[in-house]
Amino acid sequence: MREAGCHGVIFDKDNTLTAPYSDEVHPRLAGSLRRCVETFGAERVAVLSNSAGTPDDPGGVAADALEAALGVHVLRRRHKKPRGIESVQRHFQCDGTALLMVGDRYLTDVVFGNMHGMLTVHTQQLTTEGDNRVAQAMRRAEDWLVARYPPLPSAT
Ligand SMILES: [Mg+2]
Question: Order of strands, edge to edge, in the sheet holding 8-11?
Fold first, then answer.
């Protein structure tokens, strides 16, 4: 992706890099995150969580802990995905078309990336352990909708 011109990578946190409510990178992904940071540089890899770094995280305590655990920047912002592009632009100093967004949820991660011209990667859920009920219900609804209404063919 870097050789193809990708400027940076944004990861969702819960069920993308870590188990829900954990700050530690999931053991299956530790090597991949390390290689990503080696390839892009730590400044070009960031986490965009809908918990750490949002108003749900007063003082950025969870964001600080997550940064220490993962070794990459956690973007702070006032609005949750699919809003919050300002923090991405400020951090990466570019528009979304040069960025890759990776996440496990369609209506937050993929919609956010698509709204801002990013290449998006939808990942499978890492674990059902600790996933909250609202997230589970939303995931089921999103999966059903995407299966029922697949993307339109590209115009090109
Ligand atoms: Mg997630």
Answer: 73-74, 45-47, 8-11, 99-103, 119-122
Which residues have their alpha-adjacent CB atom under 5 A from ion ligand 1? 12, 14-16, 104
pTM of the model: 0.92
Per-residue pLDDT tens over the stretch 27-53:
999 999 999 999 999 999 999 999 999
Question: How do the domains of the chain map onto residue ranges?
Answer: 8-148
Q: Name the class of domain 8-148.
A: alpha beta
Measure CA 27 to chain center. 18
31 contact partners, CB below 8 Å, separation of at least 6? none
How far is it, in rounded angstroms, from Cα 19 to Cα 26? 6
Q: What's the gap in Å between 153 CA and the centre of ligand 1? A: 27
